[in-house]
User: Fold these one by one.
Assistant:
Number 1:
Amino acid sequence: MQRVDSQECSVLALGHSYSYSINNMKKMGVLLEDWPAYESVVQELVKKLLFENSPIQNALVLAVGEMARQGPLPLPAGTEESGDKDVTLLALVQTLIKIFNNKKLPSKVREQAISTCGYLCVGQPEISHKKKILEAFLALAKEVSVEQNPNHIHNGGKSVS
């Protein structure tokens, strides 16, 4: 268990450190055009999130989200025809959508996946998969409101009687 905790801490520290550095670079007007270490870190974190059922999934989602919030992730956009083993922005978006739609996962992980999808749009306003993210958000909102609405009516009726 201690190994998982240390891995989780390392991933979180890595994500927050790069996020902080990117934010400072933006403030100083430095453009992130070619930063091989950052590209490598993003590739590895996203690859681990996409292709491994990891016990540190929440830390991976949070770290990627923190970096995405500060600017575009150095990933190819990807298309529906992209291979299953390609590390692309589309594959990341699809994985995050699967995570937040998976009711078996803890709500903390699901909420973080939702935030990370939003951060992808904040850090890269011209993201090509914005429509897919918004449609997933709307479907989730519709599903949640349909599930919760009868409970509110039922609970409201009980408190009146």
Number 2:
Amino acid sequence: MSAKVQDVNAIEKDVFVGLKDEQTVLKATRSILTLFTHILVGIIVGVCFLFGLRNETQSVTDQHVLLCVFGYQLLMAEAILAMAPDSWLSTLNLKHKKLLHWIMQVLGSLLALIGSFIKILDKNQHWNTLHGQFALVAMVFTSVSLVNGLTSLYAFELRRFLPGLLSKLTHICFGVVGFLTASISLIYGFQKNSFRNWATSDLTDIIIILTAVFTAFVIINPFITFYGRFRGAINK
């Protein structure tokens, strides 16, 4: 073997090792961010549960907080994270991941909608605050995403009636908007005097920041997936 060929092989080997190292770093970074997001979810949900259970008997508002936070910020957040490349369901095949994603989405959506409706029935004036207005948007998009999730789950079977790509793109879009507006509504809920007086203003500000951070981390992967599929459809 000539010296020139050996040099080429050495360069190719170095490039391969470099790419492998970059992939390892990228995978490790994704895993750390995913773990960090799970921790933030636990913190926010835990704080909300402590607030909702602070009294021996839960009021309608307490029940509203517990159901909506458990539905949106826990189950729906985990349903979204389950579809990430390095999710806690990464050992399962795509079919089973989608099934568990759908189950968590259904349970989360139902709990969040029930939590919203019991508060609606408890009030005489509705959607006159930013908390309520964003909650209404979240309810609408969550309901649509819940139905749309079925068409996305059975996209292959329904491909003759509804393009699979359209079903998946709209499901991602509706789900992200529903979850994002639910988090914004929660942030405005944190600003209410009842929560600030319980948690103190300084802690409330920290919780609001952590909620914004974990919301951004949760929706990063759906945004990337949406962009990739949308761009792929345009380039075809």
Number 3:
Amino acid sequence: MNPVTLLPFIVLIGAMFLMTRSAKNKQRQAQQMRNDMHPGTGVRTIGGMYATVKEVHDETVLLEVAPGVHAIYAKNAVGAVLEDDEYNRIVHGIDPDEDVDAADTPVVPDDASSLTEAADAGDGDSSADKADAADETDEKAGKTDVKKIDLGKDDAAADATTASTSEDEKRDGGTDAK
């Protein structure tokens, strides 16, 4: 037999050997990870749910998925055992690397009043005094100074009646032709 004809078979067998070896290695690592679980450990299931391990049995684990809510999962359903720092960062939003001092954190105001205080200080009048003065002038003005604004509603109503009249004439046999 020619060695050139055997070469594809040898390459195929070698590739299968390497693939099965890496798959077995991954399975062994996953089994070791699942065996390292103990109560209090944070885990992520293969469905993407984060939980805390409460009890570990031979084939199952009891997970606390929310405070007071427990569920039994198969060990194979645990996708990853997380370190405490990573679990707290993901679930609780606590970043252990972040050391924030209160003096370094910028203060964000709830409203815009602190932004306008500097402008108000130069005028001598407070914004409350200005608002009171505006309210008094509105009360003095009353309803006597209110002018009606013509919105053209009467003209639109008249146009609508003439349009409906011309449509009635068309139904009766009239035309627009002149």
Number 4:
Amino acid sequence: MGRRKSKGLRATPGETARSQSAASHEQEAVEGDRLSSLLESIQSKTKEARSSDGDKALPEKIWFKRQFAVGVNEVTRTLERMPPDPPPSEGGNTHQRLQAVLLASDCDPRWLIRHLPGLARSRKVPLIYVRDKKHGSSRLGQIANVRTAIAVGIKARGNALNRCLEEILHSRMDKLDADDLI
């Protein structure tokens, strides 16, 4: 009986480029004090949006479903349903847009979230990688009142949470632009 040759799993050049770009984006991950302040501001603005929202009769779980896409499958589904180029705001647009996607950088196995950076880039949705010594997935879960979450998408609904996140994204983009000038 001859020896059986095992097929080695080798990355294609496209996969290598994608993994390198994902690794470079992960170097820009939010961690430490910045992570704590980001999560605290999101949680406080979530409470503020919940109290000021007209749908106070809704159960909390349903209200959170309207504000967040929690989990890789739901974030992927929401991103895939978004049009690649957002049309001008029309009253008949039934697609829910994501304002940003938060990804836990401690995801294992990595292939679970490998498709999200490219999908988010094609829909022009910013990604924020979350890295924490105590597991970024558990820190992300705190936002949506679940134990752990690998991915959390924040839906654009025009409330206090969205305004806060818009300020965070603009300050982050200004910092990245300033770093490019140096």
